[in-house]
């Protein structure tokens, strides 16, 4: 077979299975569920028992003869055997009865139910059958046309034509064409300044989610969301904590911790199902050798559809404990023990992907909401909710596309979104809120506000709550922060393109930058481009430059007076900020005088002048320039940088001397301020 037709088949199958068939099955699932009843299952599989009571002989365990052991519930569309413990949904009942297994088992069960119970007559019996029939149709056309153009196979459909209107088919085809020409979403880490223009594209949320689900299915045979729900339903750990919450929850410790750490009362904590797991309860777990929950508070996250607990975010209460993560997202125990490279045997956990859910969404989804507060931390959402604000939590600093889909599904794009991320010193929370705002904007949300706390009060709402210890006062602050919020509007494509072309940032990084700072950073980046080659810089140097981009305009003016060498040798941002602060205190008259002196200096570079000003007045600096050799000037500056005690007159009165009484530490090449070429390359020179 021609390799090109192979690639067309692979692409077409990947698209139609990943995007069309699975979406179609999801869309008709309500119809399938309605058609599945205990009566139909009884007749189809010949179950024996008492239909009037929904009780039957279990078909799953050997020797079953009790006509009441298996119960079926049409309201919940689920079954359970009291004898063998087998349970699940009606679709899972079909999976077991038909012995359907493999990566597509759940969807194969939908197809079987659609054909035999819903009478839809799909024309295929399984995902594998769908793939084979699609392949046969493509090959049939290929034998007639010999075409190797992918577009010549767009109109091959196996799904009912009525499922796709002509408009929808056109959208799918347009999407396919875009995927062929669209550059990879992976952003190059190259810092070349020859960057193409940047365009902030509008995105189709529904198509994006379909594509995301398709990729999940191609890789794992099931979407991440469906897998999370299935794992949760079978989780031994979740069963432990839902059935034995009273025994496993140390309520006194929970009361004390939530009060001191978050200023959240115990009634609110218990309302949300919070659990303090003390290590003394270890023996009551299904696996008593599972130690990862000791001394943690468990925050349960519920599925927005069913309300069942799908996982726990587990917060360490003693952060001084060694080798323990602050947060763990857990959905179940690992059944097998693991031995690490040190020979230690332990039981690991099944991770919980928080990006598929929103904490507190299940409780809010039925409300008519005008303003939705979105927080990083779950405790922050609980605190806001307890005060009457409609809040959900991401459970992390990243807003995923699927979480955006959930916001749109339950509240619509007209809802006002208050992004209330952490206002931390490293600016991670605020940078993430900007990135989240950009993504929301691309998907059509226009009412986006970014909320900040007062840093003096704390980085998030619970920090502020603990400091105030007065909810009425806290509410006043929250309302003030909301009024002062930044109503997000993206930077223009022209400014984003200019920022990209500076070479300081990649495409993904520029979407973390506050649009209000973009013009200033562009100016700073363009200035640096005149003197620096970013392509040859180390990661640490680039990281430092990006930190300095956040300085204010008056601070940047001072930085511009430094030589490039001195600028890059500053490894400690705090030291730079201290230098800026010291220089900022200089009065206007002295600044003007210094500016005149700079133009008259012969041997002292601007970089050296920056350090000399820390120690000496203008008169002494002039004398150093007139009476010291360049090597002696370098030695003086080296002593200042190392904060050594020395007598400057030892250098001034020894013009032409090769050494002084002051010891000098080795350093690196000196750069001349004019053309940035080496003046000296002597390892004995400290600067």
Task: Note the topology.
Blueprint: H1 3-35, H2 38-45, E1 49-50, E2 55-56, E3 70-73, E4 78-81, E5 87-89, H3 90-97, H4 105-116, H5 127-145, H6 166-181, H7 205-220, H8 224-233, H9 236-243, H10 245-248, H11 251-262, H12 266-271, E6 275-277, E7 296-302, E8 309-316, E9 327-339, E10 345-351, H13 361-364, E11 371-375, H14 378-386, E12 391-393, H15 401-411, E13 416-420, H16 428-442, E14 448-450, H17 461-468, H18 471-483, E15 486-487, H19 493-501, H20 507-510, H21 518-529, H22 539-548, H23 553-560, H24 564-569, H25 573-584, H26 588-600, H27 606-615, H28 618-627, H29 630-641, H30 649-652
Parallel strand pairs: 11-12, 11-13, 13-14
Antiparallel strand pairs: 1-2, 2-3, 3-4, 4-5, 6-7, 7-8, 8-9, 9-10, 14-15
Helix pairs in contact: 1-4, 1-5, 1-7, 3-4, 7-15, 11-17, 19-21, 23-25, 27-29
Domain Zinc finger CHC2-type: 58-114
GO molecular function, one term: DNA-directed RNA polymerase activity
Pfam family, one: Zn_ribbon_DnaG
Structure overview:
- Helix 7 crosses helix 15 (401-411).
- The protein has 5 domains: 3-163, Alpha-Beta Complex (DNA Primase, Chain A); 226-356, DNA primase DNAg catalytic core, N-terminal domain (Alpha-Beta Complex), CATH 3.90.980; 361-487, Dna Topoisomerase Vi A Subunit, Chain: A, domain 2 (3-Layer(aba) Sandwich), CATH 3.40.1360.10; 498-547, no CATH class; 551-687, no CATH class.
- It has 687 residues and is of the alpha+beta class.
- It contains 30 helices and 15 strands.
- The strands form 3 sheets. The chain has a 5-stranded antiparallel β-sheet with strand order 1-2-3-4-5. It has a 5-stranded antiparallel β-sheet with strand order 6-7-8-9-10. A 5-stranded mixed β-sheet has the order 12-11-13-14-15, sandwiched between helices.
- Strand 1 (49-50) and strand 2 (55-56) form a beta hairpin.
